[in-house]
Each structure stands twice: as C-alpha cells, then as structure tokens.
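Section 5: illustrative case.
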C-alpha cells in the first residue's frame, strides 16, 4: 500500500508592500529613538543634583606675629582656622587641663549619670585646704564635707580651684580606672591626638601630692598643643553654650554641706580680670573677653584659652601660650586681643543669614515633593572669613535638583559647601562648617509612582 503525505491547506500570507514596511519600521524606529531620547534627556537632566560652581576664595589661615610663643584664632561657630603660630607645638597646659574635666562632667549630666544637685564628698586626697592658696588655688572646704556638682563645677571653671577639679574627676571616673586613665579616656574621645595627662588639676607631677603618678618623672605635666586646647574649647562651647556665662560671674558662692549659714565667697578669674586687668589693656577694636580658662607654667609662660567677641557679635576661640612670664596676668590677655586684632585686620567676613534662599539658586527641585519642586532656605546663619585681598562674593555649590524624602520645615535637608579655601579644626563635621538648608514650609510627600512621574519632568 502506498501512503501519501497529508497536507494542510494554508493560505499563503501576502507580504506587505515595501513602502508600507518602510513606513512601519520607520515609525517604530522613531518611537524607540524618541523614548530613548526622552529617558536619556531626563536622566542627564536630573542625575547631577549638586554641582560645584564659582572660584574658590582664599580663607586660609594667616601666620600670626603676636608676642607669644604659640597662638591660634578659630571661628567659634564653624571651627574655621583663621590665624596660627606654632599651633602643633606641644606645651604645658597647667589649669587649662580643667576644660577636659569640665567637658566630661557636662556629658555625664547629659547622660543622666548624675545631676547638678548631686552632692560630692571631699576626700582626704582632694582636701587641699592646708596648702598655700597663692600657689595652689583651692576652696575652704575639708575632707568629709560635701558640695554639689554644680558648686564644684563652678569653682573649677571660675576660680581654677584644684580641689574642685580633683574631686569632680574622682567622682566622675569609673571605679576601675585611675584619674590619669579617666583623663586619657576623655582625651581620646575628643580626638586630642598630641596630649599627655597625669592629673585633673594640671599640676606638675611632683606637686600633685596624693595624685602623683609614681611611674612618671617629678617634672611630668599635662601637655597638649594649642590645636588640642582649641578642640576642647570648641566642643564645650558647641555642646554647652551656657558656659559662656561663667566669666560674667564676679564672685563664687558655695555652701559646704548645703549649710547656707556657712556660705563662703571667693573672687573669680572673671572678677579679677574686670577689676584689675581689663582697664590696662590696649583694645582699639573694643573686643569683649568672654572667658574661658587661664593656665601657665614656668616653662610655658602666661597662657589663656579664650573666647573673644567683636563688636559685630562674631565669636573667636583663642589660644596663646608663652605670653610673658607665667606669673604675669596682663600679657596673656593682651596677646589674645592682639591675635584677634591681627585676624580682623586681614579678613573680611561674609555671612549668610537664616531664612534665605541658597545664593545662586532660588528654587531647588525635589521629585519627592508635590508639584516636583520645593524651595530650600538656610536654616542657620553661617559666617565665612575671606582675606581682604580677595574680590567678589562667596559662592556655593549649585543645587540643581535634590531628591529627598525629608520634607518637613524642621529638617536639615542638605548642607551646601562654600567655595572657599580654608582649614578647620579636627572633629568639625561638614554640617557645622557648610550651609544648612531646610524646606521653607511643610510639603506633602508623594508615593513611588508620583516620584517617578516627577523625576521624568524637565525643569527650567
């Protein structure tokens, strides 16, 4: 039997005419290219949110010629270094050491470890009442008596009372660590990279009595660089601005055991400055001394870590060391004022006030915001120092578009860098030295589909 293959009858498909095929492929090509072009343009239009712009103005630190072995001037609000002289030379810091204990105590209160009203018992070791007060500043308080954390802190910060600093350090340290280890731990936390510590009072090791470190030389003393001292002062002022008011206190008032009938009064460093030193200083720019801490040794001479304010309200952290003999009180203040005067003679300030639009960009686009754009304004004032030889206004990075889900008017959405050549203290974050921007008002946030739609829009 012969088998024949089975065939299915299918009508042969006719090809479209050539001209129609050309038209269809042409339209498809146009559609693909148009889509690619649209998405490509959207990508390139929106990918760069922040763009550098403008010439960098010179705000680098000047070399100070002040009559002191070392000196440093810092903008107290941004940490910009304005003037320096041997800023990284390690020096004996004496009572300026007390700033480290002060910062540790303030942190302990913030952390809830104790309160200002918590009583601290004076130990036998921290009782210095029998020592010469002219050589070893101390309170009239004895072993077994108590003062509050607040009283001891105020005494340490305003009269440089050694017993107050030693008692506070003993109180705040861990039971397992020595006072030296306590100081080293906090120095590490503040990134004081070139400092050595022995006792909280800042005494030369042989004059630290019960706090003498037996493994160290008799002449060993707390040391740090002017930069380290500026870092301590900057962190204290930034985190605890209320300390600026301590220098206004003319007298220290304290009551051992809380007995107000036995209240004692002692002249503060600020009071001594106002009564005996201020009127002797050459102060042509009428600068205000707001603090912070004196300290000197026979080797390092007169020294002061200061806080100075000019007539426009700008504040400067200053460090001087080797300003006259260590027994002289006037020269350390005069050198401090001279250093700030040098800076003000060589720099102009350019300030951006809070509530302003970003210079060079009135509206910043934001694909997460309803409508696809939201205006950003400055959240805080920032001041930048530029050498007077520089011309023109300070510019900032341009914000072409910034996609952020932070749409509250309380949020810092971004920090924009200034186009300035400058150096800053170690530990100063970009948010502290840059210009912080926030939303002008609360804006509604879109969902993912709304975000994608806005992202594909082209903005002028």
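Designed sequence:
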């Amino acid at each position: 039997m012969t088998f024949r293959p089975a065939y299915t009858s299918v009508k042969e498909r006719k090809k479209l005419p050539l001209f129609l095929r050309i038209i269809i492929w042409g339209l498809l090509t146009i559609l693909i290219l148009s889509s690619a072009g649209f998405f490509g343009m959207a990508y390139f239009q929106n990918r760069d949110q922040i763009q550098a712009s403008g010439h960098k103005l010179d705000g680098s630190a000047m070399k100070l010629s002040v009559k002191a072995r070392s000196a440093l001037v810092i903008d107290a609000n941004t940490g910009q270094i304005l003037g320096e002289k041997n800023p990284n030379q390690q020096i004996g810091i004496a009572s300026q050491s007390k700033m480290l204990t002060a910062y540790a105590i303030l942190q302990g209160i913030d952390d809830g470890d104790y309160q200002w009203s918590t009583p601290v018992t004076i130990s036998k070791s921290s009782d210095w009442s029998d020592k010469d007060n002219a050589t070893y500043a101390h309170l009239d308080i004895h072993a077994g008596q108590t003062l509050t954390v607040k009283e001891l802190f105020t005494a340490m910060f305003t009269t440089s009372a050694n017993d107050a600093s030693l008692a506070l350090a003993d109180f705040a340290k861990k039971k397992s660590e020595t006072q030296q280890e306590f100081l080293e731990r906090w120095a590490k936390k503040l990134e004081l990279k070139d400092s050595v510590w022995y006792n909280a009072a800042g005494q030369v090791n042989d004059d630290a009595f019960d706090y003498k470190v037996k493994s160290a030389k008799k002449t060993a003393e707390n040391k740090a660089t002017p930069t380290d001292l500026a870092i301590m002062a900057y962190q204290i002022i930034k985190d605890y601005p209320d300390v600026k008011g301590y220098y206004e206190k003319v007298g220290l008032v304290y009551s051992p055991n809380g007995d107000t009938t036995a209240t004692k009064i002692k002249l503060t460093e600020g009071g001594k400055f106002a009564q005996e030193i201020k009127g002797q200083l050459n102060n042509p720019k009428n600068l205000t001394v707001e603090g912070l801490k004196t300290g000197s040794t026979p080797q390092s001479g007169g020294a002061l870590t200061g806080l100075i304010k000019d007539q426009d309200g700008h504040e400067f952290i200053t460090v001087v060391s080797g300003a006259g003999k260590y027994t002289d009180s006037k020269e350390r203040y005069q050198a401090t004022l001279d250093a700030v005067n040098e800076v003000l003679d060589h720099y102009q300030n350019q300030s951006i006030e809070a509530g302003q639009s970003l210079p060079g960009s009135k509206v910043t686009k934001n694909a997460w915001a309803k409508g696809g754009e939201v205006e950003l304004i400055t959240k805080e004032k920032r001041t930048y120092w530029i050498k007077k030889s520089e011309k023109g206004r300070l510019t900032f990075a341009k914000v072409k578009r910034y996609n952020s889900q932070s749409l509250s008017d309380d949020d810092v959405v971004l920090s924009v860098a200034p186009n300035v050549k400058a150096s800053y203290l170690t530990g100063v974050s970009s948010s502290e030295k840059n210009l912080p921007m926030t939303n002008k008002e609360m804006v509604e946030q879109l969902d993912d589909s709304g975000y994608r739609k806005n992202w594909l829009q082209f903005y002028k």
